[in-house]
Amino acid sequence: MNLARASAAAVLFATLLPLPAAAEAVPGEQAPDFRLTDIEGKTHRLADYRGRHVVLEWFNQGCPFVQKHYESGNMQALQRRYTAAGVVWLAVNSTNPKSSDYRDPQRSKTLVQDWKMAPSALMLDEDGRVGQAYGARATPHMFVIDPKGRVIYAGAIDDKATWRVEDVKDARNWVAAALDESMAGKPVSRSSTAPYGCSVKY
Fold first, then answer.
1. DSSP string, 83-110
2. Residue 7 confidence class, pLDDT cut points 50, 70, 90
3. To the nearest 10°, the Cα dihedral for 21, 33, 94, 147?
4. 3-state SS of 111-138?
5. pLDDT tens profile 15-72
6. Which of 65, 79, 145, 153 is 20 to 30 Å from 183 at the Cα level?
7. pLDDT band at 9, cuts 50/70/90?
């Protein structure tokens, strides 16, 4: 993959988020329903996916923490692995259209191709309502929802809160752990962690 490495300035302005989000999407409770249109024009409603596991991935291509997981191939591998197992993986970009990081549907389609992204859909949450309903504070901020519509995990993608690509291989992936445990009929052993990454550009 030929992604540009984050510049020193980009890293400087990336926001580490060590404090837990005061999210409404709380593990153990029902996930807030929503309706969003993806970059292909298809409408998705969370309720339509009842009976399946759902992953929500907050995304912003300009964030070095997001670039870390795509440059390494980690995020795409997770997307392919779990969608092949029947999981619905929804990437959500809550970037305000006035932000320099905003990408309209057409530019987002190009990004999906260039980065070889493999979510079930990439959706633009331009008014930020879905992100705010979930309390999404970072990119990437991850949520896992079980087939009954309950949040079973919320927080960081893994335990390495850095932008360094080389840290991916030794990280414990909390999203994979939550999915594997839940899909095996086991309780999720770690249902919440502190999100890290860049602030969502609401």
1. HHTT-EEEEEE---TTSTT---HHHHHH
2. very low
3. 80
4. HHHHHCCCCCEEEECCCCHHHHHHCCCE
5. 333 333 444 799 999 999 999 999 999 999 999 999 999 999 999 999 999 999 999 9
6. 65
7. very low
Q: Average per-residue pLDDT in the chain?
A: 90
Annotated domain spans of the chain: 37-199
CA 184 to chain centre: 22
- 92-105 average pLDDT score: 96
Number of CB atoms found within 10 A of residue 166's CB:
10
CATH number for the 37-199 domain, one of 3.40.30.10, 3.30.470.20, 3.50.50.60, 3.40.50.1820? Answer: 3.40.30.10
Using alpha carbons, list the distances in angstroms from residue 1 to 103, 113, 164. 20, 11, 15
State the number of CA atoms in the 13 A half-sphere of 127 facing the CB: 6
